[in-house]
């Protein structure tokens, strides 16, 4: 499995994987392995990738997964990210208030169905930390309460910390963070 930053030639595969994993394209059983609600287009991918970047996992030239990384001042920001950032500012993590730490946004993250449960998320996570630890202290993500598989993978599996929950547009989310060091 190769982990590297995306290039423009990867964007179509990323968009296809995104589309396959939106709730309306998943049956009830598939949804239990998680879903994403992002609707990024090619222009937004290019913008994210020219900032902190999009990391992808590739095997035999096929996309196995991707994760987007963004600074907290990225624009445009969906309402759920604004709600998350408001919640985050007052939270403590490792003895410090998060408004005083250098925080970046982790997500969306998505693996193709055939590559789940095979350690790819852990490899992407190691690459995320390596890429961000010089300029950032903490990564932050939100996970919909309807996506317990993602919460278990990130918190119980990767050791991230669920700090608190917040609401946005009638949905409830967990605010999850991790240190870029360690
Ligand atoms: C969510 C997603 C990225 C997780 O990836 P995954 O490959 O399915 O994750 P896994 O089940 O292998 O879990 C990752 C690690 O956590 C561990 N883990 C998972 N659930 C666990 C639990 N309840 N207790 C302890 N460890 C657990 C796994 O064993 C694995 O560890 P390993 O690397 O040592 O094998 C993937 O399922 C996906 O892309 N789903 C669709 C889109 C999505 O939901 N994205 C996230 C939106 S927030």
Short description:
By secondary structure, the chain is α+β, with helices and mostly antiparallel strands.
Q: What's the structural blueprint in terms of helices and strands?
A:
Layout: E1 2-5, H1 11-20, H2 28-31, H3 42-50, E2 53-59, E3 62-71, H4 79-89, E4 92-93, E5 96-97, E6 103-111, H5 120-132, E7 138-144, H6 148-157, E8 161-168, E9 171-179
Parallel strand pairs: 6-7
Antiparallel strand pairs: 1-2, 2-3, 3-6, 4-5, 7-9, 8-9
The site of coenzyme A (COA) has 23 residues, from strand 6, helix 5 and helix 6.
The proportion of strand residues reads: 25-35%
Biggest sheet overview? 7 strands, mixed
Listed once per kind, the bound small molecules are: coenzyme A
Sheet/helix structural class: alpha+beta
What would the principal axes of the Cα set say about the shape? globular
Tally of strands: 9
Tally of separate domains: 1
Task: Please tally the helical runs, counting DSSP H or I stretches of 4 or more residues.
Answer: 6
Radius of gyration: 15 Å
What is the CATH architecture assignment? 3-Layer(aba) Sandwich
CATH H-tier superfamily: Gcn5-related N-acetyltransferase (GNAT)
How does this structure look, described?
The protein has 182 residues and is an alpha+beta fold. It has helices spanning 11-20, 28-31, 42-50, 79-89, 120-132, 148-157, and strands at 2-5, 53-59, 62-71, 92-93, 96-97, 103-111, 138-144, 161-168, 171-179. It has one domain (2-179): Aminopeptidase. A seven-stranded mixed beta sheet has the order 1-2-3-6-7-9-8, with helices on both faces. It starts with a strand and ends with a strand. The mean pLDDT is 97. The site of coenzyme A has 23 residues, from strand 6, helix 5 and helix 6. Residues 21, 33-36, 107, 109-111, 116-117, 119-122, 143, 147, 149-150, 152-153, 156-157 line the site of coenzyme A.
């Amino acid at each position: 499995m190769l982990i590297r930053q995306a290039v423009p030639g990867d964007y179509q595969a990323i968009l296809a994987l995104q589309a396959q994993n939106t709730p309306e394209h998943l049956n009830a059983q598939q949804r239990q392995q998680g879903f994403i609600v992002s609707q990024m287009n090619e222009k937004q991918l290019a913008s994210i990738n020219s900032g902190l970047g999009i990391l992808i996992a590739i095997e035999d030239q096929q996309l196995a997964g991707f994760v987007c990384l963004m600074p907290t001042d990225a624009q445009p920001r969906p309402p759920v990210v604004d709600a998350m950032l408001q919640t985050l500012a007052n939270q403590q993590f490792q003895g410090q208030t998060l408004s005083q730490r250098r925080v970046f946004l982790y997500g969306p993250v998505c693996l193709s169905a055939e590559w789940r449960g095979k350690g790819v998320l852990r490899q992407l996570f190691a690459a995320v930390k390596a890429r961000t630890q010089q300029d950032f202290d903490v990564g932050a993500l939100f996970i919909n309460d309807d996506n317990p598989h993602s919460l278990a993978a990130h918190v119980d599996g990767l050791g991230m910390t669920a700090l608190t929950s917040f609401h946005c547009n009638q949905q409830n989310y967990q605010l999850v963070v991790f240190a870029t060091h360690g």
